[in-house]
Amino acid sequence: MTDFQEQQPYHPPHPPRPPYEPTQPISTGPGTTVWPSGGHVPPPAGPPLASPVPAPGPSPRRRARRGVGLMAAVAIAAAGVGGGTATLVQHLVSDPADVSAAAPVVSGTNVSSGSKGTVAGVAEAVSPSIVEISATSNAGKSTGSGVIITSDGEIVTNNHVISGATSVTVQLSDGKTYQAEVVGTDADKDLALIKLQGASGLKAATLGDSSKLRVGDEVVAIGSPEGLTGTVTSGIVSALDRDVTVAKDEGGGGQDQQQGGQQWDPRQGWPFEFGGQQFNGDTGSSKTTYKAIQTDASLNPGNSGGALINMNGEIVGINSAMYSPSSSSGSTAGSVGLGFAIPVDTVKADLNTLRAGGDS
Questions:
Q1: Got the DSSP string for 63-78?
Q2: Is 190 a catalytic residue?
Q3: CB 275 within 8 A of CB 181
Q4: pLDDT, mean of residues 239-252
Q5: Per-residue pLDDT tens for 295-351?
């Protein structure tokens, strides 16, 4: 018979006591604990272990519960940062549709606040107020531009665009055409006022204040160069109060004249003088001089009578002359950034005279 020796239960030794007291947990609410040391968040409190023997590895279910507890702890910690973080998150996740659907219109201008200061915004706002003018006279046909200033069809343009015209046709930005009559002209200022027949509900441009212009201000030009209706260019105010001399009558020609079936030569059709020199042809014996805004916004034949516009969408000048160098063969180059416009303050001061017939 074999003797059996009774075995005593084995108790593993306890781990050594740490040299410092463990950091106490911070309780944030029943069932949730955040440890300052950054350690794992233990699962919800349960019955104490019966033995200090290390427990087997956590089951998948327990691991999942630990993740939920960690996420809850992070959420609570983030909430404790304060309203600044919450406000930032709200802005980041808010639906863009909650923002105002339509940008308000800036008081006294044509450009919405969302587009203020952009060429695209100015072009969109002001283009409906710019027209193409075709004037037929004994000398041929001239093409220029104009600016609608009243909803019933008053249009400001240059005198040299319609000078001597026997008929005037106007095309709007939407393609509609109207016959127009000349109301008044002022050859000394190279201005003219025409009126569309049977027009109503048109979009009138806003006339600005050219006295507030400064050299370096951004500007936009809209017109019909070479018959390309609604062409938009941009640049800056290059100089102010330039003395520009232009022809007063049709002897200098319109902007885009055809004579005897031949294409008009821009050097002869948009003549002007500056600094004692003649450009683009001879201005002839009948001429006038005025103070002009100089701009590097691209101007070409057909822009004459169109608008020079500030970045608030206000008309600050009526484009009236440009310099285009030519070669010995007679061909002409495009714009070289030397354009001139009549200040809108001159236009406003002359409106009553033009409405009364001017010197026509």
A1: HHHHHHHHHHHHHHHH
A2: yes
A3: no
A4: 76
A5: 999 988 889 999 999 999 999 999 998 876 654 344 455 567 889 999 999 999 999
Active-site residue, from 304, 320, 324, 335:
304
List, in sequence order, every residue forming a beta bridge with 343; answer none if it has no partner. Answer: 317
pLDDT tens digits, residue range 105-140? Answer: 333 445 655 566 799 999 999 999 999 999 998 878
Distances (CA, A) of 281 to 224, 287, 325, 352: 21, 13, 11, 32
Nearest to 287 by CA among 298, 297, 296, 279: 279
Angle CA 291–195–272, to nearest 5? 30
Query: pLDDT tens digit string along 201-231?
Result: 999 999 999 999 999 999 999 998 888 888 9
Rounded Cα gap, residues 267 and 232, in angstroms: 23
Choose the catalytic residue: 127, 129, 160, 296.
160
Tokens of 356: 């009364």
Q: What does the alpha-carbon distance between residue 351 and residue 194 come to, in Å, rounded to a whole number?
A: 11
CB 217 within 8 A of CB 237: yes
Q: 3-class DSSP state for residue 119?
A: helix
Quick check: 130 and 307 in contact, CB under 8 A?
yes
| Rg, C-alpha atoms of the chain | 40
Q: Residue 40 catalytic?
A: no
CB-based burial of residue 173 (10 Å sphere; 0-12 exposed, 13-18 middle, 19+ buried)?
Answer: middle
Q: How far, in Å, CA of 221 to CA of 235, rounded?
A: 8
Which residue type occupies 199? A
The pLDDT tens digits for 51-87 are: 555 555 555 555 545 555 545 444 444 444 444 433 3
CA–CA separation, 195 and 154 (whole Å) = 5
The DSSP 8-state label assigned to residue 216 in this structure reads T
CA nearest neighbour of 307 among 132, 116, 117: 132
| Distance between CA atoms of residues 140 and 173, nearest Å | 24
Q: What is the DSSP string of 296-342?
A: -S---TT-TT-EEE-TTSEEEEEEEEE---B-TTS-B----S-EEEE
Query: Which position among 145, 186, 190, 238 bears the catalytic label?
Result: 190
Q: Residue 31: exposed, middle, or buried by beta-carbon count in 10 A (0-12, 13-18, 19+)?
A: exposed
